[in-house]
C-alpha cells in the first residue's frame, strides 16, 4: 500500500487476489454473524476475536488496494501513436492514393480537409 502511494501507481499489478481476499473476509464475517443469528447468541462473534479481526483487517486493506487501483491511480490510456501534443499540427502518411500527407490536429482530425504537398 505504501509503495503504491509512493510510486503513485499500481502499474503491472493484478488485483484478482485482492478481490478474492476481500470476498473471503466478507464471507468469514458473514459466517460469524449468521451463526450468531441462528443461535441467538452474539458470543459467537465476540468469542472469536481473531477470526473477526482477520476478516475485518483484510477487508480494510483490500478496500484501500482497490481504491488505489481503480480510483486514485487509474491506469492512463496511451494516446494513439500518431497524435501530437495538443495544439500542434503534424502530417500523417496518405490514407489512400498518392495524394501526399494529410494535415491533422492533435486529436487526429484532418485540418481543412486538404492535403499538403509532400516535402
Structural commentary:
The chain has 119 residues and is mainly alpha-helical. The chain folds into 2 domains: 2-72; 80-112, no CATH class. The protein has 4 helices and 3 strands. Strands 1-2-3 form a 3-stranded antiparallel β-sheet, with no helix packed on it. Helix 2 (16-39) runs antiparallel to helix 4 (49-72).
- What is the residue-averaged pLDDT? 78
The number of helical elements comes to 4
The separation of the N and C termini measures: 53 Å
Order of helices and strands: HHHHEEE
Largest sheet geometry: 3 strands, antiparallel
Provide the number of structural domains. 2
Number of strands: 3
Radius of gyration of CA atoms, rounded to a whole number: 27 Å
Beta-strand residue percentage: 5-15%
> How much helical structure, as a percent, in the residues?
40-55%
Strand order of the largest sheet: 1-2-3
Unreliable parts = none
Could you say which overall geometry the principal axes of the C-alpha atoms support? elongated
Structural class of the secondary structure composition?
Answer: mainly alpha
Summed up:
This protein is mainly alpha-helical. It is 49% helix and 10% strand.
Helix/strand layout:
Layout: H1 2-7, H2 16-39, H3 43-46, H4 49-72, E1 90-92, E2 102-104, E3 110-115
Antiparallel strand pairs: 1-2, 2-3
